[in-house]
Specification:
The complex is a heterodimer of chains A (282) and B (124).
Chain A: H1 3-25, H2 29-43, H3 45-49, H4 51-70, H5 75-152, E1 159-162, E2 166-172, H6 173-176, H7 186-200, E3 208-213, H8 220-240, E4 248-254, H9 265-271, E5 273-279
Parallel strand pairs in A: 3-4
Antiparallel strand pairs in A: 1-2, 2-5, 3-5
Helix pairs in contact in A: 2-4, 2-5, 4-5, 5-7, 7-8
Chain B: H1 6-20, H2 24-39, H3 46-65, H4 70-118
Helix pairs in contact in B: 2-3, 2-4, 3-4
The chains are: A alpha+beta (282), B mainly alpha (124).
Chain lengths: 282, 124
């Protein structure tokens, strides 16, 4: 025998030994898979969520391991490893199921929370809108109250008649003007200042008409002209005191709308007057 | 020895009988699990369908072996055990897929709700 033949035989012997070792100790592929999946399950979610099922898988795997020790790579080992692997799959699936159910629960709670916060927002919005309405109403009531007080304060210098659609402030002609003149007396201005304040307190958008009236003495045309000039004088003064010019008109009515008997001096005095009509309709 | 321990004799005898007889009880268990898997819609979900098919094939193979010799009967019993577990895996996998779909749907609803809030007017 040559030297090379000897080493060949040695190599062959080693190879056979290796094959024999493999055949007698290597686990079946099924057992390898069962072990790997079990380890992943034990340390993963199944170990946390379904430890009882992981324990069932462990017992099944132990049986496969014992079969492997008795007879490595045997049919029995493979069969038991198959069962162990399926037990592991059951544990994995059950854990995934619990996670999915928990996730769905979380989604439903989130849904409720979002819905609630949206409803609260809507309620808050409605509430603040309600508050705004209340504030507007209160402001309006305060303004009306202020207007009533202002008009009442005029009672000493004028007669105030409040109707639903209009308020009429009547000022005596004697107080405002000298006879036959259309220039305001100095004392009249202080009174008209009060009137102007009262008018301004009613808000700037109210339409007003200043009407001049005379008694029946003298010619109609003269009375008409005088009443017109007096109305203009009052209007101009009120505008100078801050009443917006576009809200106030001046009209001369002459002698055609008496409020008292022109046959008596007292009646004629009452008929000589300036009326300020405030439109309450808007 | 055996007449002193009748209990051991009975256990051994019944074990031999169990091994020798056809696994009809196990067949019933496996087929019931298989039907249950079909009922939860395992065929409609790919992972579940895979295990459902395995169970079906294992039951069919077991039926071929059930009336054979002792070794065949044991093989049939093993296949039926595997079939039962595969059917259970199919059931569990199908249920898990359903639960995951429901969770996904629930989150879709959450996102819809949030996007409705982000664009006011669409809800009113």
């Amino acid at each position: 025998m040559t030297r090379s033949n000897t080493s060949m035989l040695r190599a062959l012997g080693l190879g056979l030994f290796t094959i024999a070792a493999c055949a007698t100790t290597q686990p079946s592929p099924m057992l390898v898979e069962a072990r790997a999946d079990y380890d992943a399950a034990r340390t993963g979610p199944p170990g946390e969520y379904v430890p009882d099922m992981v324990y069932e898988a462990k017992k099944a795997l132990d049986q496969a391991e014992r079969a492997h020790e008795r007879d490595p790579g045997s049919y029995e080992e493979e069969h038991l490893a198959y069962l162990a692997h399926r037990r592991t799959l059951l544990a994995v699936s059950a854990a995934e199921q619990r996670m999915a159910v928990a996730d769905a629960g979380k989604a439903k709670r989130t849904f409720e929370t979002v819905l609630m916060s949206q409803r609260n927002e809507a309620t808050d919005e409605a509430a603040s809108a309600g508050t705004r309405l209340d504030a507007e109403r209160a402001k309006r009531q305060a303004a009306e109250e202020e207007m009533r007080r202002a008009l009442a304060s005029l009672a000493e210098i004028a007669s105030v008649k409040a109707e639903a659609q209009r308020t009429i402030i009547t000022l005596s002609g004697e107080v405002l003007f000298k006879s036959t003149e259309a220039t305001l007396r100095p004392g009249a201005q202080a009174r008209l200042d009060k009137v102007a304040e009262a008018l301004k307190s009613q808000g700037e958008d109210r339409k007003m008409v200043v009407e001049g009236h005379t008694d029946s003495q003298g010619k109609d045309a003269y009375n008409q002209s005088l009443s017109q000039r007096r109305a203009e004088a009052v209007r101009s003064y009120l505008v100078s005191r801050g009443i917006p010019a576009d809200t106030i008109q001046a009209v001369g009515k002459g002698e055609v709308e008496p409020i008292a008997d022109n046959k008596t001096a007292e009646g004629r005095a009452n008929n000589r007057r300036v009326e300020i009509e405030i439109d309450n309709s808007n | 020895m055996f007449d002193r321990h009748p209990a051991i004799l009975i256990v051994l005898a019944s074990a031999i009988v169990a091994c020798a007889s056809a696994p009809t009880a196990q067949l019933g268990e496996s087929e019931a699990a298989y039907r249950a898997a079909q009922e939860v819609g395992a065929a409609k979900q790919p992972d579940a369908a895979y295990h459902l098919k395995l169970a079906e094939d294992q039951i069919a193979a077991a039926k071929q072996l059930m009336d054979g010799d002792r070794k065949d009967k044991q093989r049939a019993r093993d296949l039926l055990e595997q079939a039962e577990l595969d059917a259970e895996v199919a059931i569990s996998t199908a249920k898990t897929a359903d639960a995951e779909a429901r969770a996904k749907q629930a989150w879709v609803k959450v996102n819809e709700l949030k996007s409705q809030a982000a664009t006011p007017g669409t809800t009113k």
